Amino acid sequence: MIQMKTPPLRDAILRHLTYSFGKDPEHAILEDWRMALSYAVRDRIVDAWFKATGTTYDTGAKRVYYLSMEFLIGRLLEDGIVNLELVDEAKSALAEFSKDYHEVLADEPDAALGNGGLGRLAACFLESLSTIGCPAHGYGIRYEHGLFRQSFVDGRQIEQPELWLSQRHAWEFERPEVRYRIGFGGHVTNHGETVRWHPAEEVEAEAFDTPIVGWKGRWANTLRLWSGRAIHPFDLDAFNHGDYARAAAPEALARTISRVLYPDDTTEQGKELRLKQEYFLTGAALRDILRRFDNQFGDIRKLPEKVAIQLNDTHPAIAGPELVRILHDERGLPFDDAVEIARGTLSYTNHTLLPEALESWDESLFGRLLPRHIQLIDQIDYTHAQKNPSRTQSMRADHQVKMGQLSFVMAHHVNGVSALHTELMKTTVFEELHRLHPDRIVNETNGVTPRRWLLACNPALAGLITESIGESWVDDLEQLERLEPHIQDSAWLDRYAQVKRENKVELSNWMGQTYGLHADPDMLFDVQIKRMHEYKRQHLNILEAIAHWQEIRENPDAGWTPRLKLFAGKAAPGYFFAKDIIRLINDAATVINADPVTNKYLKIAFLPNYNVTLAERLVPAADLSEQISTAGKEASGTGNMKFALNGAPTVGTLDGANVEIREHVGAENFFLFGMTAEEVMERRTVESHARKAIEADPRLAAALKAVREGRFSPSEPDRYRGIADNLEGADYFLVCSDFTDYWRAQREVDAAFKDTQGWARMAAFNTARSGWFSSDRTIRGYMHDIWNAKSLLQG
Ligand code: 8GP
């Protein structure tokens, strides 16, 4: 490998400004500076990347492939700078040119190639894989438009297309030489033993590579995203006949496949284009994986020994039948051997038990698009039934193809994402398959990368921690326990509290400048940020706020704890109930914030366009983390971990990873309320459970009445009748039944917050005891329990 001397960052920036972008410092615009800095940082990442790739080849190590329809990576420049420990150098280099570091960083578009938790987890995993030095690739789709941009008009959510590629993007390397043909439709021929699929339509998948660097630049892996291209991009004949639209049609059609990210989180719509995207990603990834494997190892029977493919939910589940098709139809292995090899290579993560999220495809659509795969699925299903005579559920029931069951049968391990979720998998959706394969389900509780979610987003707290215990916590987060003795020291605790206050001041200033929202940093900052969904119960939060407001009005001098309630989150464009909840929060905020009697004590704001960057601002400044889903519904949560790590105690239910967070931080540092998953199931069987809860709690009744009667929508009093009817009627997510206990927990929060020292102690224990929630720990779990993969870093 060529060895080159690394120039100082300042020189590298200037060099790129001049020779990569053709600008001198006098004429460079902000974007030029951002690009020049990015290229200077990228050069160093590339050095680490080449070295890692070389080591992986030389050692013949097993490789991990993470297939995911979503990678919610956010901005990458700060990530690179922080991981390469270039913060000070970058700041002073830019200062030499009179450029502000933060302004330059803020110019980068936020790559939102994901919806929420599942996509952000994939991004944290990539960073942890590199930090650990596990040879890995992420495979996804290079969507031209990521998750829509959200704004509010009269409190209503408006969606606009997201355009992250309209600005220059520094991180990817186009690989025009890496292209694969992906087919759809057509027919299957059968000549004796030889079965062949003849697709009717083909597009090309072209690779774009982004290096992902780990802590201290010791290792870098690749995120390879596929973009759709036409095989014959231009119809010259049509052009020559003056039909310019038809001439360009093939390219437009092929590009459609990677044009947009589906904006649904935890709902499946069964759309044809979505299935095409799934096969496009999976087909291209498998060809790429097998090409690399063939070049290096040759003997296909060694595939499970050298390759681990993780399916991020069922979206890439077609990998099972596709691998069998390649091994059996194309390479001539016996069917049973092909299935064995595929199963030895694949594993599957389940991220939700919500029935509406479990993928199942109409067999006629599926068979039309993937005629050979549906035959193979039938054969896989048939052999599985033969080997397991007590099986009652087929993956091909009701004229559907059930991707959850297919994934389970084709995977050597299936994992849940928190202890509770994994146990529920065994007793609900996968009960029968778990009985037949009792060793297949394992748990890998989620985690978050401490580089982004503490070191980069909360430099003040990171600084205090490093000063107190050294910097080893950055890639060994459980070292944070060593903060515990410091918590007993009141001077240290004051500094801890001071850091939180500074973060709150910074957020207040930013909200003031950006939204004209003026918040007193001494208020309790109560934050709920996540996708909008009934099971996450943002409506429970706003109902409690309304009840609280009514109570303050009645008795303004009762010594209330001042509170700022912050919300942020997007609703799927077709999820009208969730959109109504957004509007209700905005309408309630308008009325409540304008109330001179109460607004010293209660303010509400819904910040638009929630994304990774906004989370990075809010998490360090939060006092209280709202994790209030109906127990049994949130598979894990990862926002909950970010808040705890940054010193915001949780008010939450025993759901998902909240259970483990509470175990780790201690019950006395967590505000628990609500029914358990078991009690939830029982409560649903109680007739008129909502009505009974409302009758028992006059505060709840009064809050609902205000919503129903249009207190927050005087120009349209009926606006929220739908919400009121739902809550007073079926109330599937048990908002009413959990309300009273939620109210109680919130008043405990109020009281606890008044004791400044006591609160700081609670917050500090949350930080000190959150080390286990590092995604490094999670990835080590996958490497050990599922992939049988090793780190290639020494020591
Ligand atoms: C989410 C879960 O809702 C969340 O609890 C968990 O922390 C996260 O995955 C990471 O494991 N699930 C999804 O985002 C999800 O299932 N999305 C697919 C249906 C699109």
UniProtKB/TrEMBL annotation:
Reactions catalysed according to its record: [(1->4)-alpha-D-glucosyl](n) + phosphate = [(1->4)-alpha-D-glucosyl](n-1) + alpha-D-glucose 1-phosphate
Q: Does the keyword Ubl conjugation apply?
A: no
Q: What class of enzyme is it?
A: transferase
Main localisation:
cytoplasm
Q: Write out the GO cellular component annotations.
A: cytoplasm
Query: Where are the N6-(pyridoxal phosphate)lysine residues found in this chain?
Result: K642
Q: Which UniProt keywords apply?
A: Allosteric enzyme, Carbohydrate metabolism, Cytoplasm, Glycosyltransferase, Pyridoxal phosphate, Transferase
Which GO terms label this protein's molecular function in UniProt? glycogen phosphorylase activity; pyridoxal phosphate binding
Signal peptide (UniProt feature, chain positions): none
InterPro entries per the UniProt record, alphabetical: Glycg_phsphrylas, Glyco_trans_35, Pyridoxal_P_attach_site
Q: Name one Pfam family in it.
A: Phosphorylase
- Name a biological process GO annotation: glycogen catabolic process
Q: Where in the cell is it found?
A: Cytoplasm
- Keyword Cytoplasm (UniProt): yes
Described purpose of this protein according to its UniProt entry: Phosphorylase is an important allosteric enzyme in carbohydrate metabolism. Enzymes from different sources differ in their regulatory mechanisms and in their natural substrates. However, all known phosphorylases share catalytic and structural properties.
| Database matches in NCBIfam families | P_ylase (TIGR02093)
What family name appears in the similarity comment?
Belongs to the glycogen phosphorylase family.
Q: PANTHER family under this entry?
A: GLYCOGEN PHOSPHORYLASE (PTHR11468), GLYCOGEN PHOSPHORYLASE, LIVER FORM (PTHR11468:SF3)
Designated name of the protein: Alpha-1,4 glucan phosphorylase
Native source organism of the sequence: Salipiger profundus
- UniProt lineage: Bacteria, Pseudomonadati, Pseudomonadota, Alphaproteobacteria, Rhodobacterales
